[in-house]
Amino acid sequence: MPQSKKRPPNHPRGSSKAILSRFHVAPSPLAAIFTVMVIAVMFALGAFIMFEYRSLQVQSHGRVGSAYIDNLLAPLALDHFEILGHTNRNSNQAFSYVAQKNPNLVMRVWTLEGALLYSTLQDDTADHHEAEHLKVAMQGEFVVNLETSGTIDPEFPLAYPYFEVYAPIHDPENGMLIAVGEIYLDASELLRDRSFVERATWAAVILAALSMLAMLALTFSQSSRLEELLAAERKMVKHNDQLRRAANRARLDAAQANEQVLNVVGAELHDGPIQLLGLVSLMKDQHPQTEMPDGTSVRGLISQVMTELRSISAGLILPELEDLDTSSVVALAVERHKALMFGDVEMEIVEPLANLDLPRKICLYRVVCEGLSNAVRHGQGRVPLVTVHQKGSVLDTVICGGKSQGAKTTSSITPWHLGLQGMRRRLDAFGGRIELAIAESSATLHVTLPIQSPDDKP
């Protein structure tokens, strides 16, 4: 049994398979570069957001710790230190009360000279601090650090992670810097919030990156489809150009075939009727009446017919034009006309002239012959003038003769009408034109023949 051809699946217009079939991205270096750029930019954006968020989070907790130190320790320092730098029992009790209410709070108070005034830690010494951070706080700025790992002192009540804040203590009445406070706060809740925010931020960044990549893929898909359509259009244009060239070659071949037919017809006329009439003219006249009533003899009529048929056949048979240049083709047409019509013709050829191909040589030859025949037939005895020159890529041929008595305009019914139509059809095959200008005492036939048409170019 014959095998049936497989047809492509017919998907509904709105189905996912139909959408995927229309979505096509051809791999290209440009698409890969843009994909890498989008991923890199989105990753950098996410990292920048995370860095800024962490910095702002730490700084905000540092400001909170600084305000806590300044508001809590300033009154205690002013109320329970008789002379700053000398503690008494009441101040120790007050600070102990604060430590009892906040068991995880580690707090120190420093003088502006760097001496330790008070600490919630037992047996605390002045060595347990960051000297650089303390110097910054003594200049009126707060310092905050987030510690996530390290060695923990067994007597230290906080575990990692925690905040370490150094902040100045000011006198509430006059705002003078009187001491430096140091506190340690638990940062586990902050890290949990940070982890949640970072996950949400990265999810948003990844979603945005995927959306941008999808839009990028859609853009490249449309670009790929447009390139395919453009390639198909170019292929179609190339195919149409080939068809146009083929049609032009066929038209030229038809013109050559027409000339061959004319040659065959001319040969048949010469070898057929003309030969028979020649035999008849050689036969003896057996009729007693040798002359017709108007004085014309049969032999004379036969001779006239033979002359006309010879002229027709000679005009149909095309001479050898393939090896002639353009000026020689024009000269041959003029000489052939002079030999057939027994009349003079003036000729003016402006050199140089481009060499024509054989179909254009045939067209030029026929046009000159037909133009000269019409000029002599309807020119009232005026000697025709043939002028040939070249303007750029166009060959101009002008044939001047006398004006026919019945000629008025180019479109009127004149004795030249049939000849003009024949020449126009020949010139149309090459994109040429023909114009007939009628003056008071002369008629000018202007013929333009392109040397090479656009379809003939490789």
From TrEMBL:
Give coiled-coil spans as residue ranges. 229-260
Keyword annotations for this protein?
Coiled coil, Kinase, Membrane, Transferase, Transmembrane, Transmembrane helix, Two-component regulatory system
InterPro entries tied to this protein: HATPase_C_sf (IPR036890), Sensor_HK_TwoCompSys (IPR050482)
Q: Tell me yes or no: is Kinase among this UniProt entry's keywords.
A: yes
Class of this enzyme: transferase
Q: Which domain of life is it from?
A: Bacteria
Q: Which SUPFAM superfamilies match?
A: ATPase domain of HSP90 chaperone/DNA topoisomerase II/histidine kinase
* Residue intervals passing through the bilayer: 30-51, 200-220
| Listed Gene3D superfamilies | Histidine kinase-like ATPase, C-terminal domain (3.30.565.10)
EC number(s) per UniProt?
2.7.13.3
What biological processes does GO assign it? phosphorelay signal transduction system
Q: Which reaction does it catalyse?
A: ATP + protein L-histidine = ADP + protein N-phospho-L-histidine
Question: Keyword NADP: yes or no?
Answer: no
Which GO molecular-function terms appear in the entry?
A: protein histidine kinase activity
Q: What is this protein called?
A: histidine kinase
Q: Organism, per UniProt?
A: Roseovarius mucosus DSM 17069
